[in-house]
């Protein structure tokens, strides 16, 4: 999904792809495992079926997810829910969409930041993104779950670090044909869509677009402050090597 790039040390995208990304892979594995074992997947018979399963899902998300009203006025233990919520997902579509974004953008960000720094960055920005959403909806009783805020931070950092990396996108008005654009085109466009959606979103169940925006902004600002203008990776346009698979 990402084109070749080269930097001051002569690295190429193929090198990055072959480089291990243990944190990214561990996050994906953990999210998938937790989802499979939880009530939302429907795979664990211990949660029952029908109305029993529905009630189990509500109780599960309320216990482990972020409930803004409880976060600010509830027990002290609620302060940990923005961390636990990062590893929960409400449906298969929610899970697979988030994991796809993390898989595509996480490895290069991890390689650039380093494993420990990337882990702290992911958890810290994800926590603050959910906290920002909760603060803006402090009276909400709805549970908020998902890694979207943390993954949005990865996108923001990726935009700063690899602005010229080419990303394969599927556009509905082009009949979902894959087209390749640089990250500086795709990611700001994605952020603009989140902004528009956040302005139209109503309180209640749905997508926490505000958490996406907060995470994206935090990720970009962090990369800018941590790495500075002099360390951005230069990208050179190059055709995909023969036999290279496009996801």
Annotation keywords:
mainly alpha, two-stranded antiparallel ribbon, disordered N terminus
Question: Can you offer a commentary on this structure?
Answer:
The chain has helices at 13-18, 22-37, 50-64, 68-73, 81-84, 92-113, 115-136, 148-161, 183-200, 209-227, and strands at 166-170, 178-182. The chain is mainly α and 247 residues long. The N and C termini lie close together (6 Å). A two-stranded antiparallel sheet has the order 1-2. It contains 10 helices and 2 strands. Residues 1-17, 171-177 and 235-247 have low confidence and may be disordered.
Describe the secondary-structure layout.
Elements: H1 13-18, H2 22-37, H3 50-64, H4 68-73, H5 81-84, H6 92-113, H7 115-136, H8 148-161, E1 166-170, E2 178-182, H9 183-200, H10 209-227
Antiparallel strand pairs: 1-2
In whole angstroms, the N-to-C terminal distance is 6 Å
**What amount of the residues lies in strands?**
under 5%
Shape: globular
Q: Could you give the order of strands across the largest sheet?
A: 1-2
Calculate Rg over CA atoms: 19 Å
Number of strands: 2
Largest sheet: 2 strands, antiparallel
The chain-level mean pLDDT equals 80
- Which structural class fits the helix and strand makeup? mainly alpha
Give the structure's gist in a few sentences:
This protein has 247 residues and is mainly alpha-helical. 57% of the residues lie in helices and 4% in strands. Mean pLDDT is 80; it is low at 1-17, 171-177 and 235-247.
């Amino acid at each position: 999904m990402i084109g070749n790039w080269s930097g001051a040390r002569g690295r190429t995208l193929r090198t990055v792809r072959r480089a291990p990304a243990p944190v990214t892979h561990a996050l994906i594995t953990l999210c998938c495992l937790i989802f499979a074992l939880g009530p939302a997947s429907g795979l664990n018979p211990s949660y029952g079926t029908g109305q029993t399963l529905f009630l189990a899902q509500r109780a599960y998300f309320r216990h482990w997810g972020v409930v803004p009203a409880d976060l600010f006025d509830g027990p002290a233990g609620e302060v940990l829910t923005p961390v636990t919520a990062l590893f929960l997902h409400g449906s298969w579509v929610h899970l697979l969409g988030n994991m796809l974004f993390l898989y595509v953008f996480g490895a290069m960000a991890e390689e650039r930041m380093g494993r420990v720094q990337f882990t702290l960055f992911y958890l810290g920005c994800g926590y603050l993104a959910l906290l920002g959403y909760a603060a803006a909806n402090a009276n909400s009783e709805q549970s908020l779950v998902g890694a979207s805020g943390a993954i949005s931070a990865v996108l923001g950092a990726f935009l700063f670090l690899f602005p010229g990396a080419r990303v394969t996108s599927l556009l509905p008005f082009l009949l979902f044909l894959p087209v390749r654009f640089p990250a500086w085109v795709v990611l700001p466009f994605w952020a603009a869509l989140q902004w528009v959606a956040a302005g139209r979103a109503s309180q209640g169940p749905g997508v926490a677009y505000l958490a996406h925006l907060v995470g994206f902004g935090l990720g970009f600002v962090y990369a800018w402050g941590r790495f500075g203008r002099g360390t951005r990776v230069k990208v050179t346009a190059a055709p995909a090597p023969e036999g290279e698979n496009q996801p």
